[in-house]
Design brief:
The structure holds three protein chains of three kinds. Chain B is mostly helical. Chain B is built from 18 helices and no strands. The longest helix of chain B is centred in the N-terminal third of the chain and has 36 residues. In chain C, strands 1, 2, 3, 5 and 8 form a five-stranded mixed β-sheet that branches. In chain C, strands 4-10-9-6-7 form a five-stranded mixed β-sheet, with no helix packed on it.
Chain lengths: 225, 543, 162
């Protein structure tokens, strides 16, 4: 479940001593309840634009939200609900990444909402569909492994589903593959009710690569050639 | 005898307009139906598309369940009222206004439906949300039909004043019972629309209580099938006996059946919520009783109509235990329709009893059994009578002979066969577990293979039914330009004519009060609980 | 008012049939406690994973203090969680299931584990599985364009193996 800081070990161990069953933390502390939805709706694109510069998001994610290296995710056009949750998850350490944890440490809830609104307003990069045929998993999944079609949750055209189901179109290949591997190894576990971990663990390396090539944008290194 | 109708008085244009909207809707609905069954079986991978499929199912359901029915019922009611009461329609302008309100609503709802912005099924259960134009359009369709209700009640009131103490002609008695029942039952969906779905889809309120929405809708969802069924029963009682050269076995039993349908249909809707969590078992049990009671008017109708048919058969020379069946004039479309309708009613009615059973419904709920059931009982039993009604009324509305009687008979038999081929496999598929409302079956289960042979039945059935619909529409279209004829709209007399009937069988004031009391007892607390206790609403969800 | 003699007999027959049908259902409801899943238990579906009963830790099969079994599950687009569940055969089991998002229906063909799952409310099914084997939970209420893909596995195993 990612890195556990000292701050968390002590109260946890007290819990173990004092209570009966041990309750692990939920996969994410973010819930799309009334207050959260109102908060996300109140996000201002203008304020987000200012923050993107002052909080240095643009250093890696650029103003457009489209990165220049294959391991940094494209966040342009990501739904505000999804981005909001990921940033909060970084803050709550239910999603671990040293750089991002540092980046969001000082952000308020409103800041996060504004940033999410800003990047949601940026045009999404295009899926390259760089495969010979449409991978079967995209529309049909694989019933034998209880892997549902990717597009059942991620949008009939990969454009994203509701709330915490992100668009797959126009992502970065390196990031796509790394994310799937993180789900496989439980290194990423903020998918509520193990929804992605269950699926990722059934996929082979080749399948992940094929899906990455289908959904992702043309890699910046390739584009430069 | 009676009032001499002038050309301005007749409602022929009004009825024809309503009928044609219904006929166009059923043709479009049938085309969508064929697309759906072919896509669903997965015969052609290039056709696979949940987006298109669910947009089609939603459109198909709205067309068949709301548009075809409402307009054809209105067309039937207007012509039946004026020809049976032998008086002009009071306020015909209002009736036309209602027609246009309903038509506008239909077209308004059609846009998001066809664009895939209202793929929420014809039941539009929240929290899946459609474009607000869908909800507003559907509401307008219902509001337009309230004008029809008002006209039916008004006409009856005027006639009774002009004929004090006389028995209201059975045809109009039935239509008015239907109109009053429709007003009561639409209260459920109207409340759901006006207070929940429309403001919610417009963003004026953020959440709706899904349990409350489903409970309100259940108040409409059952009785609407009796709204559809009434014209079919009315035709059986008042048009069939005349058309086959006989008399109705019992006028009073007809009135009793109509009154029972008025009183019992609406307050029993919770059997649509048997498997829902937010209602206590006790209330479901209460509704179960009512649901079995509402089988009674159908049992009574079955007896009366079959007795009428037997009488007719014997008048035509039929002898022996079953000889009367073959002696019946099957070449009369109304006869063929009622014969097929009764046969489908036995299967469909049996299925209905299973669904009504408090403990059995668990095994069939939301499986293809349900799809099979309502197609058989509605698209079969009820709609085939609608076909016979238009075959009978169009020549009289247009003053021309039906273009082809033999084509009409073929069309009816084809519909009957197609309906059985379509729905009987579905019943079995439901028992072996196939869920409804799926566009494909990507399950890792040995059941999927077992389903395939029966799935092919629905493809065959759908195609047969489309052909049948095209035959129907062609026949009626050609009737507009066929030979002139002077045919009169006449209704059956009963064997024991009853110029006077007890007041309770001649009016609805008392029975309306009974409905209100029954509604309050059976739905009062189940609805109030949502306001007494704290519940959590759901926000809008896209598909 | 005239009612034919034969029709009168038929009315009595249908009344008797109706009463018998209602009687049988009442007998099984009252006597064998066979009811469809019912009960008014509101819950905030938007905070489901943060609730005590439907948090990830509490999902699955659990033995209660009094020895009875409870299976806790969640229905969420597009699957049932936990996605593979093992339960013992011929043992009374209470199934508690709630929705994290929209309306769903769950049915395990050839068992009576069937219920609607309505956002805002907890569904409860009490049943005893009769046969061992591999079964599937199927979603049978339209819940969105991915509805077809919503299913999961139920393994009913001999009592001794759990």
């Amino acid at each position: 479940m990612g890195s556990i800081t000292m701050k968390k070990i002590i109260p946890l161990s007290m819990l173990i001593c004092l209570s009966g069953p041990v309750l692990a933390e939920p996969s994410s502390l973010v819930a799309y309840d009334k207050e959260t939805r109102a908060l996300i709706r109140s996000g201002s694109v203008e304020s987000g634009q200012k923050l993107m510069k002052s909080a240095k998001c643009k250093k890696c994610h650029f103003e457009t939200g489209i990165s220049d290296d294959t391991d940094t995710p494209n966040i342009a056009g990501m739904s505000a609900t999804y981005s909001f949750k990921q940033l909060k998850d970084y803050q709550d350490d239910t999603r671990s990444e040293k750089g991002m944890a540092k980046a969001v440490r000082k952000l308020s809830d409103q800041d996060i909402s504004d940033l999410a609104a800003y990047y949601a307003s940026q045009p999404m990069d295009k899926a390259a569909h760089d495969t010979e045929t449409v991978p079967r998993l995209v529309h049909y999944g694989d019933p034998k492994r209880m892997v549902r079609a990717c597009n059942s949750c991620h949008g009939q055209n990969g454009e994203g589903g509701m709330y915490d189901m992100p668009a797959l179109n126009g992502q970065r290949i390196g990031y796509f593959i790394a994310t799937m591997e993180e789900f496989q190894g439980d290194d990423r576990s903020n998918d509520i009710y193990w929804r992605m971990r269950d699926i990722a663990k059934e996929l082979t390396e080749d399948e992940i690569e094929e899906l990455a090539n289908y959904y992702s944008a043309v890699d910046p290194e390739e584009a430069a050639d | 005898m009676g009032y001499e109708m002038t050309n301005n008085d007749n409602v022929n244009g009004l009825s024809l307009a309503n009928f044609w909207v219904g006929l166009i809707a059923i043709t479009l609905g049938a085309v969508l139906g064929v697309y759906q069954v072919i896509e669903r079986v997965g015969l052609f991978e290039w056709l696979d598309s949940p987006t298109l499929y669910f947009a089609s199912v939603s459109t198909h359901g709205v067309l068949m369940g709301f548009v075809v029915t409402t307009f054809m019922i209105m067309g039937f009611g207007y012509y039946a009222a004026t020809t049976s009461l032998k008086m002009p329609l009071p306020g015909k302008g209002l009736a036309w206004f209602g027609f246009y309100v309903s038509l506008t609503g239909t077209l308004l709802a059609a846009v998001p439906l066809l664009l895939g912005e209202a793929s929420v099924m014809y039941t539009f259960y929240p929290p899946l949300v459609a474009h607000p134009a869908f909800y507003i359009g559907a509401t307008l369709l219902v509001v337009g039909s309230w004008f029809w209700c008002f006209e039916m009640i008004w006409a009856m009131a005027i006639w009774k004043k002009a004929h004090p103490g006389e028995a209201v002609p059975l045809v109009h008695f039935g239509n008015t019972a239907n109109a009053i029942m429709w007003i009561f039952t639409t209260l459920g969906v109207a409340s759901e629309m006006l207070f929940q779905l429309i403001p919610w889809s417009l963003g004026l309120i953020e959440t709706v209580d899904v349990g409350l929405a489903r409970t309100l809708f259940s108040g409409t969802l059952h009785a609407i099938v009796y709204f559809w069924l009434f014209p079919a029963y009315i035709a059986m009682y008042t048009m069939v006996p005349k058309a086959i050269g006989s008399k109705l076995f019992s006028d009073e039993m007809g009135r009793i059946a109509f009154i029972m349908l008025l009183v019992i249909s609406v307050p029993i809707g919770m059997h649509h919520l048997y498997l829902d969590p937010f209602q206590e078992a006790g209330w479901k049990f209460v509704h179960m009783f009512g649901t079995f009671l509402v089988a009674l008017p159908t049992f009574l109708t079955g007896f009366t109509i079959i007795a009428t048919l037997e009488l007719a058969g014997r008048l035509h020379g039929g002898k022996g235990l079953f000889g009367w069946i073959t002696a019946l004039p099957w070449k009369e479309p109304l006869m063929t329709a009622v014969g097929c309708s009764m046969m489908m009613l036995t299967f469909g009615g049996f299925g209905g009893l299973v669904n009504a059973a408090y403990s059995l419904d668990t095994m069939v709920h939301n499986t293809q059994w349900i799809t099979g059931h309502f197609h058989l009982i509605f698209a079969g039993t009820t709609i085939i009578m609608y076909f016979a009604i238009v075959y009978h009324m169009f020549p009289r509305l247009l003053g021309r002979t039906l273009y082809s009687n033999s084509l009409a008979l073929k069309q009816l038999w084809l519909w009957f066969v197609g309906m059985l081929v379509l729905t009987l496999p579905w019943h079995y598929l439901g028992i072996i577990g196939q869920p409804r409302r799926i566009s494909s079956a990507p399950y890792d289960s040995p059941l999927v293979e077992q389903w395939v042979p029966y799935d092919l039945g629905m493809v065959a059935g759908g195609i047969i039914l489309l052909i049948s619909v095209l035959m129907l529409v062609f026949n009626l279209y050609k009737t507009h330009s066929s030979e002139a004829a002077n045919l009169v709209m006449e209704y059956a007399e009963s064997i024991h004519p009853a110029p006077r009937v007890p007041a309770l069988l001649n009016g609805f004031g008392f029975w309306s009060v009974v409905v209100i009391i029954y509604l309050i007892t059976s739905y009062g607390y189940p609805i109030a609980q949502f306001f007494i206790y704290e519940t959590f609403g759901a926000t809008t969800w896209g598909v | 008012m005239h009612i034919d003699q034969t029709e009168k007999k038929w009315i009595y027959i249908t009344l008797v049939m109706t009463v018998v049908m209602m009687g049988v259902l009442t007998f099984y409801a009252v006597g064998s406690n066979i009811h469809p899943p019912s009960g008014f238990e509101p819950i905030d579906s938007t905070r489901l994973h943060l609730s005590e009963e439907f948090g990830e830790d509490n999902l699955g099969l659990k033995k209660n203090e009094d020895g009875s079994l409870t299976l806790t599950m969640v229905a969420a687009r597009y699957g049932f969680y936990p996605s593979t569940v093992e339960v013992p055969v011929q043992t009374p089991i209470k199934i508690r299931i709630a929705s994290a998002d929209v309306l769903h229906g769950v049915h395990v063909p050839f068992t009576n584990f069937a219920t609607m799952v309505v956002p805002g409310y907890i569904s409860e099914v009490n049943t005893t599985f009769q046969k061992t084997g591999d079964f599937t939970l199927l979603c049978n209420e339209y819940c969105g364009l991915g509805h077809d893909h919503m299913w999961s596995r139920l393994k009913i195993v001999p009592k001794s193996s759990l």
